[in-house]
Amino acid sequence: MRTALLRLKLLLSICLASVSLAGADEVPAQHDVNQAFAGLADRMQPAQAWSAKTPQEHEAWREKMQATVVDLLGTMPEKVPLEVKWTEKQEFEKFTRHKVYVRTTADYWSPVYYFVPKNITGKRPAIVCLHGHSGIDPYIRLNETPPQKEKTDHSALDYALYMAEHGYVTAAIVVRGWNETQGRQDWYVKTPPRSCHQVTMNTLLLGMTPQGLRCWDAMRVIDFLETQDEVDAEKIGVAGLSGGGTLAMYLPILDQRVKLAMIAGAFSEYRLSIYNINHCICNCLPGIMAAGEMADVVALFAPRPVLLINGVDDQIFPIDGARRGFDTLKQAYGVLGVPENVDADFFDGGHAWSNNKTLAFLEKHFGELP
């Protein structure tokens, strides 16, 4: 009898469930975050996208967009007097490498590897070099191991050395949060020493941004460069790959002393790259997509020269976005009458630097070296 009752209850529950399911709504197809955020981005119209037809329209746009981007980059620290500590010096065949520390805030000294070409006369252009997420070592061939050498060779990471070997003063900054400046190690990577997660969380809570604070450090390094006898203070540029390329996009907006920029493995479209592909959180500038795309940010440089460097097989900064952005920049520079001031090296390769055009670009805009 008891068994029969249990069977009856089971049968009734199945029947009731069937009735419930028969009358239920279908599960919506759009209920995951990928679809939701794709839709939000597709419907968002950037409020300050570049569309100028005349130099006057460009200038009116630039004033508004410049103010917006500077605001988005966050609060900057209080400026402190310039102080520099010279701690190391090493001679190489074509340059001398110094290690200096530049006080950039009341509580922080930025480590910088300062490369001065041998046997130079007069003043030389100087390039601020910003590394990516591999940290400083492979970018200046420091503590080099065979695997690291292979990586540096393959991706041409040593552009600070390359330019120094060809007569340019270079300053390779240990970007805040990497290597010896590391705080809490990013929980999702074991090497290199880096603290992007902490830098991002702490800056955002303070009303700052990682991009803004790291650019602030670079601006104070430019203060240092201006004091050096071998540096032509009217010819200072910036070069960066990957995360360093992202900083190289924002630095010229914050500092008009940056007269040209070389941006590698970082220029595409926010919508295609940082928004759509897993990236380090330090690449995300809050609110930027509501204002414009990467091309709109870089158009703020105009008429200052810019060289875009992109591997056509870069999987995290898609080339299609870079090509569209380059088209926009050609229009912007054309409106100002200087289409020759924007160029691109879309080379066969992946997420890497390329020197196919760097020396010609520097000579074109900074002149022949003495």
From TrEMBL:
Top-rank taxon, per record: Bacteria
Protein name: Abhydrolase family protein
Leader sequence residues: 1-24
InterPro entries hit by this protein: AB_hydrolase_fold, Abhydrolase_bac, FrsA_esterase
Naturally occurring in which organism (per UniProt): Bremerella cremea
Keywords: Signal
